[in-house]
Amino acid sequence: MNNWRQRQQGGGTITTSNDFPREEKEHNVYLLPGTLDHYQEQLTRMLEAEQYGEAKRLLQFLLQTRGEQRNYEEWENLLAWLEAAFPDTGDREEEDPDEEELRQAALSGGDQDESYVQQVLYIMKNHPMLDQQLLALERAAHLRSPEVDDSILGWLEEEKLHPVVQYKALQCLKRRGVAGTVRLERLGERVELEIERTPLALEDYPVPVRRIVERVEGVAETADPTLPHFARELWKECLQYLYGSSAYERMLSEEEAAVDSHAAALHLTLLLAVYGSADEDEIRHTYGITGELRFRYEQACRSLRQITDLQEGYGER
Fold first, then answer.
1. Which one is predicted more confidently, 10 or 303?
2. Where is mean pLDDT largest: 24-28, 78-82, 190-194?
């Protein structure tokens, strides 16, 4: 889920430069909302597929159209970054390295020359789109270069990063076999985390954390059989933000009251995400949130609302 909505993945054909106008110089082309969404999706797919030359040409076309100013600022920033990071992809796409070979190099143990390693690290640290940073971290986990560990550790401790990027960087280091502690700021708090204890999947989290979502799944499936799936995805996303924070530490209590309080907050957030509304009184009744548990419940709700605020603040970078 992204911004509490499930992200659509895969499928569809990536637009090529022949699929959108290339010579329209007039600013009288107005994109309808549906058409704009289509081009935005194509742009995302091009970037995911590392078709940077095509992405540049699409951005150049979009900048010639009429629409909302905020879109132009985003497109201009992305185009400027692509021009700086990949200056040779604009008009010579046929000379680019085979993208699938680059994609598989880190994953299959193939040749990893210095330029490939530096490209992965550069995208990880500098790409303006969050998804591309996360993809670079996935690849970095398989790089054999000895400089990668120190590069990620220094970046993680010294830079102000998106909470999800921090979490994925910790996972990357664990997959690389790095051990020890790392000190960083998460959700406004200074924390010290042991890299080797970073969960790689929901099943790796402590029992109380897993019980929270299991409690919600058991309640939610009676109302809508599709809700348990969304509850689990939403909880995994929440944990990427909260891991290591004081809010996360409060989840670790074995007390049933702690599980119920967090489960009620998660259920409320789930219904607001899926349906746009929720009966909070009914939720509190269902999970037994009486007067003595009200403070814990509201504290948990504030933690989850904090994630919403962070997502709105970062957007898609």
1. 303
2. 190-194
Verify that 232 and 143 share a domain, yes or no: no
What confidence tier does 241 reach under pLDDT thresholds 50, 70, 90? very high
Residue corresponding to tokens 């992809």: 89
In a domain? residue 274: yes
Dihedrals phi, psi of 185, to nearest 5 degrees: -100, 125
Q: 68 lies in which domain range?
A: 17-95
Tell which of 95, 121, 141 closes a domain. 95
SS (H, E, C) the chain: CECCECCCCCCCCCCCHHHCCCCCCCCCCECCHHHHHHHHHHHHHHHHCCCHHHHHHHHHHHCCCECCHHHHHHHHHHHHHHHHHCCCCCCCHHHCCCHHHHHHHHHHCCCCCHHHHHHHHHHHHHCCCHHHHHHHHHHHCCCCCCHHHHHHHHHHHHCCCCHHHHHHHHHHHHHCCCCCEEEEEECCEEEEEEHHHCCCCHHHCCHHHHHHHHHHHHHHCCCCCCHHHHHHHHHHHHHHHHCCCHHHHHHCCCCHHHHHHHHHHHHHHHHHHHHCCCCHHHHHHHCCCCHHHHHHHHHHHHHHHHHHHHHHHHCCC
Rounded to the nearest 5°, which phi and psi values hold at 236? -60, -40
Q: What is the tens place of the pLDDT at every residue in 162-176?
A: 999 999 999 999 999
Query: What letter represents residue 109's amino acid?
Result: G
8 assigned to some structural domain:
no
